[in-house]
Amino acid sequence: MNFLPSFEVLAAFTAASFLLLITPGPDMTLFLGETLRSGRARGMAAMLGATTGLLVHSLLAAFGLSAILAASATAFTVIKIVGAAYLVYLAVQAVRHGSALTIKPGKGVQRPIAQVFAMGVGVNLLNPKIVMFFLTFLPQFVSATDPQASQKLLFLGLYFLVLGIPTCAVLILMAEQFTAAIRRSPRVMRAIDWTFAGIMGAFAVRLLFARSN
After folding, report:
1. For position 213, what pLDDT does the model report?
2. 4-10: average pLDDT
3. What is the mean pLDDT of the segment spanning 105-122?
4. Is 124 exposed, middle or buried (0-12, 13-18, 19+ CB in 10 A)?
5. Are residues 131 and 62 in contact, defined by beta-carbon separation less than 8 angstroms?
6. Measured in Å, how far apart are the chain's first and last C-alpha atoms?
7. Is residue 200 domain-resident?
8. Using 50, 70 and 90 to split pLDDT, how confident is the model at 145?
9. What CA–CA distance (Å, rounded) separates 141 from 199?
10. In a domain, 53, yes or no
11. How far is Cα 178 from Cα 42, in angstroms, rounded to an integer?
12. Which domain holds residue 32?
């Protein structure tokens, strides 16, 4: 199975993806908020909707990047370098501003599950930052000279989703404990922020050293 990345690359991607999945963002705010206000069924619906949006982004990014690679390995390398700069920007933003998890307490109006699912889809499809992230994150794990690069891009995009569903499901099942822990100890989120920043910065440095060699 030549489309599989090396063990080292897959391990690094898994670690980075897991950290990204537990870092609060609009999608987490939505599905944890729905869980706390309306129950786990609606939390799961919101999460699956968000995952559907991510699936679209993953496929578009993988096929788009594959097309760029097929047209020009140099252009793909330029995207990787621009991506490294973007990852450094994300690292700096995480340290400066931290993660945002804003969940309103109390009971809310119970929306139909189909509507909650659609909201989850919309949170991702309408967020240009997610498009930018996939276009800059995935290439960091693939070499422009790899003959199986296009297949590996697609594999990594789908693998991210496979990691995300059980991880987010656990967060939903433990929504009350997770949000309470964050509120009790801001240091926990700051530790996640710094770890996130460190990993994003490490990817950028790794790419620059690879280019210098």
Report:
1. 43
2. 85
3. 80
4. buried
5. no
6. 28
7. yes
8. confident
9. 13
10. yes
11. 17
12. 7-212
Q: Which two tokens stand for residue 162?
A: 């496979």
Q: Is residue 2 part of a domain?
A: no
Of 160, 146, 165, nearest to 17 by C-alpha is 160
Q: Is the pTM of this model over 0.85?
A: no
Which of 93-97, 159-163, 204-208 has the weakest average pLDDT?
204-208
Whether the predicted pLDDT of 117 surpasses 60: yes
Residue 25 falls within a domain, yes or no? yes
